[in-house]
Amino acid sequence: MATFTDLSLSEPVIRSIINMGFEETTPIQEQTIPTAMEGRDLIGQAQTGTGKTAAYGIPLVERIMSQAEHIQGIVLAPTRELAVQVAEELNKIGQFKRINALPIYGGQGIDWQIRALKKRPHIIVATPGRLMDHMRRKTIRLHEIKIVVLDEADEMLNMGFLDDIETILKEIPEERQTLLFSATMPRQIQNIAQRFMKNPELISIKATGVTVSDIEQHYVEVTERLKFDVLSRILDIQSPDLSIVFARTKRRVDELSEALSKRGYSAEGIHGDLTQSKRDSVLRQFKDGTIEVLVATDVAARGLDISGVTHVFNFDIPQDPESYVHRVGRTGRAGKSGLAITLVTPREIGMLRLIESVIKRRIIRKPIPTIVEAVQGQQRLTMTEILRVIAEEDIEKYKGVAEDLLAENDSVTLLSAALKIITKEPDNVEVRLTEAAPARGRSMGGRNMGNARPQQGNFHRDGYGQKVDTWSRRKGADFRGGTAAPQRGRDNKRNGQ
Ligand SMILES: Nc1ncnc2c1ncn2[C@@H]1O[C@H](COP(=O)(O)OP(=O)(O)OP(=O)(O)O)[C@@H](O)[C@H]1O
Ligand SMILES: [Mg+2]
């Protein structure tokens, strides 16, 4: 593995990379940065969470002149949250070279953006629709752009941005450099490449699978009616640090997040019909751990890099294999491990098989978890928390009361009562979700999702027939913070926490 100093980068950029805590390059960075620095067009494909942002961000920042006070680089991204995140990363890479990147996206006040543009950013990171607005108003001019990056280009096509992208690229001088990055490269991308790129070099990192191998991938076959109980039980058993639950429609996201809250989980939803300020605050709370379960449509499937996401749930199986790859890729980032669990109704098994054939990997079947397992999971959580408090916290002032109580009750009875109070018991608050139509696949012609080979190593881990210990919490994952058990207790929750 190469280090960044092998890549003939400038001193300020090396310094900022060190400051960001990057030591070695990832494979996509090692292979694309030199080509991109030469000014060539390129298409970069590599698994989710492997550092594609810096793979284009570093050459982008390097090739921009900090003295010239006009927009020289532009990154197009499919969602607002992704635009914000990419701009943040570019600002970090450019901090010592004094390169400024500005996110430009819908839902944010256009006047505010116009004022921010007057500060003359070197790079803008934009969603296509809002950029078009600024082009019409002539508040952004593209005639001095030297570099264009299309991040998640395939998703921008899915969202119907082809015409917008075409209009935008026509405004940009032809001598520009064009870079295109995604974890998935369906066939339409070749079309974009032919029309808008000059003899692009294709750099595809040949991994063993299209999805990251450190992400364990499971599925549970379950009827629509039982899905919510299964999700709750798995949450109780596994007690994820942070998890994302993907659902098919905005309405189901609303209903699910409400139902999860009713059952005592700290959950919020995010989707495209919410106001931008709501979207921002939900994401912020999820990042700082105030919310533990983020319920989302595919708006959160692409590119978002949130550390601490240990679990991804497909409450509804995605409509196509690309979406599966990206959703699951919200965990297991930058070499971390993760677990992805897909709930599949009997009618959707065909879609699951299609996904397996595209990702060239078996998704392991797990049985429906039982209530007993859910209870055991929560009891384990309580026990761990008690042992932690004994080891780490000052409990002297409780000892007097404890002794008084012990004078009249035996210790096992007392401790059992205390455990009951702080353990979140499986909850049967009635919930009702609007049914979603089962997933039907799009045509699969000509998919090229990376030159994956089957991962033989995963085949022996099949969960068929295993029972009680199948759903035990994974080893090695520890509980975030110290207050997990009491805060998640149902009584606290009912008091509005
Ligand atoms: N060389 C590196 N060393 C250590 N961490 C890195 C390195 N490069 C990137 N990272 C970190 O890895 C994480 C994932 O990076 P990034 O979001 O760029 O992935 P991606 O390939 O674009 O994924 P996706 O396909 O989901 O968009 C980020 O937290 C980033 O800071
Ligand atoms: Mg990315």
Automatic annotation (TrEMBL):
Motif (Q motif): 2-30
Domain Helicase ATP-binding, chain residue ranges per copy: 33-203
Biased composition (Basic and acidic residues): 459-478, 488-497
Residue ranges annotated for the DEAD-box RNA helicase Q domain, each copy included: 2-30
Segments of this protein annotated with the region Disordered: 440-497
GO biological process: response to cold
Catalytically driven reaction(s): ATP + H2O = ADP + phosphate + H(+)
Gene Ontology cellular component terms for the protein in this record: cytosol; ribosome
Record-level Gene Ontology MF annotations: ATP binding; hydrolase activity; RNA helicase activity; RNA strand annealing activity
Transmembrane region(s): none
Enzyme class (EC, first level): hydrolase
Alphabetically ordered keywords of this record: ATP-binding, Cytoplasm, Helicase, Hydrolase, Nucleotide-binding
EC code: 3.6.4.13
InterPro entries in UniProt: DEAD/DEAH_box_helicase_dom (IPR011545), DEAD/DEAH_RhlB (IPR044742), DEAD_box_RNA_helicases (IPR050547), Helicase_ATP-bd (IPR014001), Helicase_C-like (IPR001650), P-loop_NTPase (IPR027417), RNA-helicase_DEAD-box_CS (IPR000629), RNA_helicase_DEAD_Q_motif (IPR014014)
Domain Helicase C-terminal: 214-376
Family recorded in the similarity comment: Belongs to the DEAD box helicase family.
Protein's name in the database: ATP-dependent RNA helicase CshA
Source species: Desulfosporosinus lacus DSM 15449
